[in-house]
Amino acid sequence: MSKTIVLGEEEVVIIGFWTSPYAMRVQIALEEKGVPYQYVEEENLFHNKSPLLLQMNPVHKKVPVLIHNGNPVCESLIILQYLDDVWNQKYTLFSHDSYERAKARFWVNFFDNKIADCGRRMWASKGQDQEAAKEEFIESLKLLEGELGESPYFGGEKFGVLDVALIPFSCRFYTYEMFCKFKIEKECPKLMEWVKRCNHRESVSKILPDPYKIYSFVLHFKKMLGID
Amino acid sequence: MNEVILLDFWASMFGMRVRIALAEKGIKYEYKEEDLRNKSPLLLQMNPIHKKIPVLIHNGKPISESLIIVQYVDEVWNEKAPLLPSDPYQRAQARFWADFIDKKVYDAAGKVWTAKGEEKEAAKKEFIDILKLLETELGDKPYFGGDSFGFLDIALVGFYPWFYALETFGNFSVEAECPKLIEWAKSCKEKESVSKSLADEKKLYEFAAEKRKTMGIE
Predict the structure, then answer these.
(1) How far apart are CA B175 and CA B73, in angstroms?
(2) Which residues form the signal peptide (chain B) (predicted)?
(3) Taking CB atoms and an 8 Å cutoff, what residues of chain A touch B76?
(4) What distance in Å separates the CA atoms of residue B144 and residue B129, rounded to the nearest whole number?
(5) CB contact under 8 A, A82 and B71
C-alpha cells in the first residue's frame, strides 16, 4: 500500500516505525524545536519495505529517514545534527561548547554500539549469553549514570542531545527486565530518576509508546522469528 | 595555551585521519606512538572505555573516536581550512558517508585479509562493492567534498595505503575495479597534509603479513 506524501503543506516528513527508539529521537527533537512535521509509519518494515523508504534510504533501507523539502537525511544522530544546523533559533540540542559536543557524540556512539550488541541478546538469547548481555547492559548504564552525575540532564541544566538520544530506550526497560529478571531501578536509581524527569517533558510523554506495548510487540516478534 | 597531544599507532587508518586534519589546520602537536600490545598509562587514563587510539588530548582533555576528533578539530580551529561543508544538507551527506565508511569498509577489509578459501572470494566481492558505491558517490568531482578536500576525503583516504596489502593477499587490483577512486586517492596524496600523514604501503604490507603469520593465516 503506497502512501502519498504531500510535500507542499508539510516540508518535513519522517519515516519511522512505532517501536524504533531511533525514530523516537528524531520526533522528540522536532517536538522540542517546535517544527511541524508529518510522521509516516513504515508499516511493513520487516517484510515488505515501501518504495518510499527504498528510494529515500537505498543504502541501509532503515528508519528513521527525515525528508526535508524532498531531500532525505538518514541515521538518527546525523539527523539530530542536521536539525540543529537548520532549526537553531529557539532551542539547540547540542551544546555550544566544542568539547561538550564531542563528549555527547562519544556517548551516543558508545551507547548505540552497546545496545546493538547486548539489546537483542537480552530478549533473544538464553542462559549464559543472555546473562552476559544483561551484565554488559547494566555496566554501560552505570557508566552513563556516572556521566550524568548530579545534573538534572546529560546536557546539564538543559535537555540536550544525549538526553534525546537515550530516553527512547527507556520504553524498552520493562522488556529487558521481564526477560532478564532484574530491576534497572535497583541497579541504577539515579538513571531512573532521570527517566522520570524526562517523562515530565511534553515532547517525551507524547512520543514514547507504552512500555507494556513494547513488551507485547517483542513477544510477538520472537514468535514471528521462530525464537522461543 | 594550546597544548595538543595525539596518541596514535603508525599503521592505523583512523589515526591517519586525525594526522591529516591537524596538518590541514596547521596545528602544532606532540605525536606519541603507542605500543598496542602494551598500552601506556596515559592512553588507559585518557580512553578508559575503549582503550583505543587515536586519542587527541587538548589542554589535558581527551577526545576519542577519529571522526569525532576530526569534527572537534574543525570546530575549534575554524579560522582556516574548513573540513565540513557549510551547507547543512551537504554536512549531513558528508557525515552519512563517513559513517558508512566506518560501518562497512574496515570490517570488509578485515575479512579480505583474514578469510580463507571460498570466504575470501565473497569477502573480496563485498569489499569491491563497497568501494564502487563510494566511487559512485565521488562521481566526477575532484574530491568527495567537491572542489575542496574535506571531511569525507579524510574519512576514506587513510584506507588507501592499506590497498596494497589487501590486493596482495587477496590477489586482486582495486585500480582495475575502481579506477576513479584510485585517481582520487593519488590526487589526495599530492597534498602535503596527506602525504606526510599516510603510512607507507610496503611497511603496512609487512606489518599485516607478520600479523597473519601469528594468526595462523597463510
Answers:
(1) 32
(2) none
(3) 98
(4) 18
(5) no
Min Cα separation A88/chain B (Å) = 11
Task: Give the orientation angle of helix A211-225 with respect to helix A98-124, to 10 degrees.
Answer: 50
Chain A residues with beta carbon closer than 8 angstroms to that of B95: 75, 78, 81
Task: Output the CA–CA distances (angstroms, integers) from residue A49 to A8, A54, A63, A205, B143, in the order listed.
Answer: 24, 7, 10, 28, 33
Q: Cell numbers for B10, please give them.
A: 603508525
Give the model confidence (pLDDT) of A108-135 as tens digits.
999 999 999 999 999 999 999 999 999 9
8 A C-beta contact, residue B113 and residue B166: yes
pLDDT at position A89: 85
Give the residue among B45, B41, B43 at the shortest CA–CA distance from B54.
Answer: B43
Other beta carbons less than 10 A from residue A222's beta carbon: 14
Cβ contacts of A161 within 8 Å, gap of 6 or more = A80, A84, A93, A94, A104, A108, A155
Options 3.50.50.60, 3.90.1150.10, 1.20.1050.10, 1.10.150.120; CATH for B88-215 is 1.20.1050.10
pLDDT of residue B163: 96
Convert the pLDDT of each residue in A103-115 to its tens digit: 999 999 999 999 9
Report how far residue B182's alpha carbon sits from residue B160's, in angstroms, rounded to the nearest whole number: 8
Q: Which residues have a Cβ under 8 Å from the Cβ of B44 and sit 6 or more positions away?
A: B51
How much of chain A is helix, strand and coil, in % rounded to 5?
60, 10, 30
Query: Taking CB atoms and an 8 Å limit, are A99 and B58 in contact across chains?
Result: yes
Find out if CATH 3.40.30.10 is the number for domain B4-76: yes
pTM comes to 0.95
Confidence of residue A9 (pLDDT cuts 50, 70, 90): very low
Crossing angle (nearest 10°) for helices B117-138 and B88-114: 160
In chain B, domain spans: 4-76, 88-215
Reduce the DSSP state of residue A197 to 3 states and report it.
Answer: helix
Q: What is the ipTM of this complex?
A: 0.95
- Cell output for A175: 522488556
Q: What share of chain B is helix, strand, coil (3-state, %, to 5)?
A: 60, 10, 30
Q: What is the C-alpha to C-alpha distance for residues A177 and A187, in angstroms, rounded to an integer?
A: 11
Of residues B14, B108, B24, the one with CA closest to residue B55: B14
Cell of B85: 561543508
Q: How many CA atoms lie within 13 A of B208 on its CB side?
A: 25
- Partnered with residue A40 across adjacent β-strands are A15
